[in-house]
């Protein structure tokens, strides 16, 4: 099985490095007590949800982040807007997926939270092949960066699992492979589980948010990262 590239929460080491701690279930429902919107919606969009809180460590900045959905178009790209100090500092259509992009799960956006200096966003979807992705965003030197990510997939029929967790602040990468426990007759997958730790190449340390598309498709298997050096 190939890992779905548009892919459970980040490992504790990422949360510790960003000064954040996640609590509750792996994919808790988005807080229904949403604050008022950050600003008026962009033309052709409605504001779906918003979160506010301090971002950064040790110096924090008051931030408001909202998710916009295209009017009457559940297949359209959502937009996420970042406001710092009341001013728009960043807008991206790459972080959150459309309302119907989660396959059998429907809406893939399962977590949106600001906690202890970072923004957490999680997407989850698929049918037989379930995929998930968790992102941690924070600010460094006045700019938004990706502090860490976890991409994972699971074949619900065979049990094969792949998981890649990256801490872009400390540079630690963990890649985990669990072979199928119910392999198909023609399955050529490795029968041995693999749990590796390696170092993130410097070029990927605290990348900008506009690199998300490349992060999703790059591949974070420690065995391959070691060969690419």
Automatic annotation (TrEMBL):
Keywords: Signal. Residues 174-190 have a biased composition (Basic and acidic residues). It comes from the Bacteria. Residues 1-28 form the signal peptide. Residues 174-197 are annotated as: Disordered. This is Lipoprotein. It comes from Ralstonia flaminis.
